[in-house]
Amino acid sequence: MEDTFASLSSDQQQQHLRKIKNDYQDKENKITRVSASGAVFLQLNEKRSILHQVDNNTSIVDNLGEIDEVKTTELTKKISTALEIVNDFSFNTTALIELKSDTNDLVRVTEANDNKKPSLSWSPPKPSSINNIDIIPIVEDTNDDILKHHNGIYWRLLFLNLVILWAYQSLISAQNYYIKFFKNDHLDFWGTVSAGSAMFFLHIIQLYFGIYKYGFTKRVIPGFIGYIIIAILVMAFKNKIILIIAFASVGGLGTITESPVYGIAGLFTTGAFTQAVQVGSGMAGVLNVSANTIIRLIVLLVHSHIDQDQLSFYLFMSVLIILCLIAIYVYYRLIHIPSVNIRINQQMTSFKQEKFGNIVQLDFIENQLSFWTLTKILKTHLFVQFYVLFITLLLWPGIPCGATNNGWFNKGGKLWWCSPFIIGSYNLGDLIGRILAIKIHKYFSSNICLVSSLLRTLFILIIFYRHHISNIFLLILIIFMGVTNGLLATVTFMVRPQTIRGVNNCERAAYLMTAALYFGIATGSIVAATLSLTHIV
């Protein structure tokens, strides 16, 4: 190389140097700041290099030094902007990025530790380097503004899931309406069967086709709008087929809207936000049946010319419409919280990285685990989630609602037995269990959860003794069943195996857990309906 260069004339040497310099500048790595999403993207358009030229020629070395200086100046401006964003906002990184120039790093995002926040730093490249990319996963950084917005995130997630479950609970709690107008149609069974089946199958379709990759807003907002349409339809048409379709639609929309709420909670390593979603589920049942009871009592006292059960049902569905409109507003407030917005943008970026063609996305890439790998890691958690909900839906609400009434419930309280007493007792216990989970979840291992879920099998005795025990004792059993359901269902969501790390993996794990939940609801309600309709119980 040295002999070849030396044989060139002075003009040819200078021309050769200019060509090297232009190639270096034209084919450099591009670092682009995309501020619209509040994140920093480091995009590598092309991997380029310059072969080292003869290093004993003074003119060549000097000229390459000038190239390095030009490169350094340009990169300084670009990287300082990225560094400022990363460090000022304590950017929550999901990948450690290194653009290596031989032994010197071009750009480095350092991992957070107990005494130091994550930061971005860089050093100028040697002109002789060939750029390579290494991606090393790290644990999610928790040193952002989560603490500042913790309560806002917590209560918004709680409220959103409360409204989502309110739609389902509204149809469950209206048992007096079904008993009066559809007495022999077994809507207490068929309703839960259609809702549970729709939840499970639509959730599987969602995962299989990757619908969850289309974003959170595109699923949540249509879900709430769908609830409003369903509420209007069931008020406009008094028809059992419409009601069963409404149950199925609410179940399907519940999958579309609830799974992204669990997904948002799963973007954080803290279990508190998942617990908020679970408590919202429990509160929906208690507040819903309470609202239904209050409306029925008010209508009873007013002595309206309209049928009391019909009017209370209309008012009840109207509350659902109002709550859905409020939930849409709350959702938009949630996703504009900085720490939530950053994580959502990270997630959506990782989903879109395969669409960039020859542009390699660097910042949010992590070692993504497959659903099968996650299933093997979560096998105990998934079984517990499934079995807890299976036992619950096998026994509630249909079987205790059909128990022989005694005392006041056999007289004037017959129409009040199923709702609010059976429905309300379970929902109260479920809420207590979900709240209790935040206090004692640290005492639960996977094996304790497994054994506890298997012990719930004893509740099946309710099937055989419901006609022979006091209604009050049966209500106590239903409350206890609710407590264990809420406790175990919440704990298994909160206690995440340490091997699951990174935004993508945490969210996908949440989707798997939600699938187990829906599968338990579907199979439990189907078995219950089969036992009832075949008169086995």
UniProtKB/TrEMBL annotation:
Offer an example of a GO molecular function term for this protein: nucleoside transmembrane transporter activity
- Transmembrane keyword on record: yes
UniProt keyword annotations, A-Z: Coiled coil, Membrane, Transmembrane, Transmembrane helix, Transport
Which GO terms of the cellular component aspect does the record hold? Answer: plasma membrane
Q: Which residues cross the membrane?
A: 153-169, 189-212, 224-248, 286-306, 312-332, 382-399, 448-466, 472-495, 516-536
Cellular location of this protein? Answer: Membrane
InterPro entries listed in its UniProt record: Eqnu_transpt, MFS_trans_sf
Q: Does the keyword Transport apply?
A: yes
* Segments forming a coiled coil: 10-37
- Offer one Pfam family short name for this entry: Nucleoside_tran
What is the residue range of the signal peptide feature? none
| Family indicated by similarity | Belongs to the SLC29A/ENT transporter (TC 2.A.57) family.
What's the protein called, per UniProt? Answer: Uncharacterized protein
